[in-house]
């Protein structure tokens, strides 16, 4: 065990069997759909990291710029006695900006990917020797409890990247309600949320010229081939992403280029030419719209910070 990091095991990773059943149910449904979690095998995670570097994908760099500019303000609101809890801790550079500004007594990284979590919390513990570092292997979309023995007075959760946008608004509300119940009175949530904006900017962000988002979307079919023994030819599908204004969401689809049957572990799935597999929705919120959603879930909106083009917003909410 890593002497620098206190490790807590909360949930074992989802069993392959239940993932498989969920996948088949989505492929058998009308319209066909899969959960965005299926994107993130090793290659998918690498492609997502590359998306964040694309000039059209403004989300990551804008959120970082907001954090940098607002760090002192955030530190003043959050205080210096916090336990910072990062949900989906990944390899994020963003939390480092917060650690440096807030100087919390304790950090807890929560992620379902054990290896990734151990590597990233180890790096943090080495780089910030003054910080008490904990790692919880958990699926934070399921009921969970904070581990015992965290130093600090006030837990403040950090959920960056507009990951909340990959939930439907109903799921987002349920997720926020769960967090509001888990946090004690005075606990907080710093959350990055992508804003509703001109559709040309949104469409470009999910159709980068280098084709990285297309590769990310099509990699789902590669994953089906390798992990789920699917008989499917990725070149028989194309990437499609567009802003659905009525539902305030980007939709990503894989469009079948012809009438074809694919097989997933022996189960036949028919596609007509032009029929799509809906692989992801990425919801966008106005500032008042998100404050209302959070308020309905038990949070009190305290502050928010945005950039001068109003592309992205970081909200600070308390219970
Ligand atoms: C992780 N999530 C917030 C990204 C998004 O923008 O919805 C995933 C993504 N899909 C395509 N590009 C990026």
TrEMBL record:
E.C. designation(s): 2.1.1.44
UniProtKB keywords: Methyltransferase, Transferase
Location of the Histidine-specific methyltransferase SAM-dependent domain: 21-318
Annotated GO MF terms: L-histidine N(alpha)-methyltransferase activity
InterPro entries per UniProt: EgtD, EgtD_Methyltrsf_superfamily, MeTrfase_dom, MeTrfase_EgtD-like, SAM-dependent_MTases_sf
SUPFAM superfamilies, A to Z: S-adenosyl-L-methionine-dependent methyltransferases
Pfam family, one: Methyltransf_33
Keyword Transferase: yes
GO BP term, pick one: methylation
Protein name, as recorded: Histidine-specific methyltransferase EgtD
Record organism: Halomonas chromatireducens
